[in-house]
Amino acid sequence: MDKKELKSKPTEEFAIKWQAPEFEYQRKDVSWYWMSLIIGIILLALTVWQRNLLFAIFIIVAWLVVVYSASKTPTNWNFRLNEKGIQIYLSAKDEAARKFYDFKEMEGFDIHTNIVVGANEAPKKYGELILKIKKRFSPYLKINFPIADQEKITEFLQKYIPKEEYSESLADSFSKLIGF
Question: From CA 136, how far away is CA 55, in angstroms rounded?
Fold first, then answer.
């Protein structure tokens, strides 16, 4: 082989690949739906008492969205972490669904595992990788990853972006409390 052929061949880059659901699904039983209906009726009664028709319509639409979202199962995504950044895609064939985040766009990362230690609950299979993106309106990108890959992902990311502590937001805490 001559030198031109060596230069034109792409070098094999190191990458960490995994597949994970969009969110960790928590099955809701019938009592969860009854409780949401009771809360919806109480809020609806409050809006009738206040004579606020617009808020009543909002409560009905919001309840329907919550019930629909509660039964939705997560989509499985593929992730590829390499020297340039992280790529997110549905499948290798689906070019349109690809999204790439360059390390230059990131300020830092954190990993939350939140292992469940309840008697009736199974341990979690996925941790949460939190990437702080240099964007004004959506500064955090949260990605599930298999807990078994935590050390490998942490070591790899520390080479490119700093590890920082990010606390859970009030919305995240509330969604976990109600089972989302």
Answer: 30
Quick one: DSSP state of residue 10? Answer: P
d(CA 20, CA 32): 26
Backbone torsions φ then ψ of 146, nearest 5 degrees: -65, 135
Per DSSP, which regions of 126-168 are E strands? 126-133, 140-146
Alpha carbon distance 163, 131 (integer Å): 9
Reported pTM: 0.67
Q: Which of 103, 109, 106 is nearest to 164 (CA)?
A: 109
Query: Tens of pLDDT along 21-39?
Result: 887 777 888 988 999 999 9
Determine contact, residues 109/133, Cβ cutoff 8 Å: no
- 105-115, pLDDT tens digit by residue? 888 898 888 65
d(CA 174, CA 75): 22
